[in-house]
Amino acid sequence: MPVLFRLLMVLIEVVGHTVRLLTLGFRLSANILRGHLIIDCMNTGVLVQLKLFIRIAGISLRVLTLVFELCVIFIQAFVFSLLSCIYLAEAYV
After folding, report:
1. In this structure, is residue 57 part of a structural domain?
2. Neighbouring residues of 17: CB distance < 8 A, sequence distance ≥ 6
3. Chain-centre distance of CA 49, in angstroms?
4. 46 pLDDT exceeds 60?
5. Cα-based angle 56, 39, 52 (whole degrees, multiple of 5)
6. pLDDT-derived band of residue 49, with 50, 70 and 90 as boundaries?
7. Taking the C-alpha atoms of 25, 28, 34 and 40 in order, what is their torsion angle to the nearest 10 degrees?
8. Inside any domain, residue 77
9. Is 64 among the domain residues?
10. Region 7-34 average pLDDT
11. Distance of CA 28 to CAs 36, 72, 80, 86, 91, Å?
12. Measured between alpha carbons, how far is 61 from 32 in angstroms, rounded to an integer?
């Protein structure tokens, strides 16, 4: 009976580590895609608008969004690196 229990525990651990890495990758990909979609939508909206004031407001909003996206990129890189280190450290314990 202990041999079956050990095999089950190994299987659960392998699946758990695999799912962690997959969800980390999906989360990172979804955040990158979200940022690109928001910027693309804003670019399309700025090109369609005609009045100068609205165009300037749209461009400044676009620049603010790009700055925000840069902040998000750095946070995502930090979180990705931190979680990768934690997962690798747990794998070797």
Report:
1. yes
2. 87, 90, 91
3. 31
4. no
5. 15
6. low
7. -100
8. yes
9. yes
10. 84
11. 13, 11, 8, 16, 21
12. 19
Q: How far is CA 67 from CA 3, 20, 27, 77, in A?
A: 55, 30, 21, 16
Q: Which domain holds residue 28?
A: 24-91
Q: 4, 71 in Cβ contact below 8 A?
A: no
Question: What is the helix (H) or strand (E) element at residue 84, kind and residue range?
Answer: helix 52-91
Mean pLDDT of the chain: 79
> In residues, how long is the chain?
93
Per the structure, the count of domains in the chain is: 1
Could you tell me the pTM of the whole model? Answer: 0.56
Q: How far, CA to CA in Å, does 26 sit from each of 8, 22, 30, 67, 75?
A: 27, 6, 6, 23, 16
Measured distance CA(71)–CA(63) in Å, rounded: 13
Is position 18 within any domain? no
Whose tokens are 């100068």? That residue is: 52
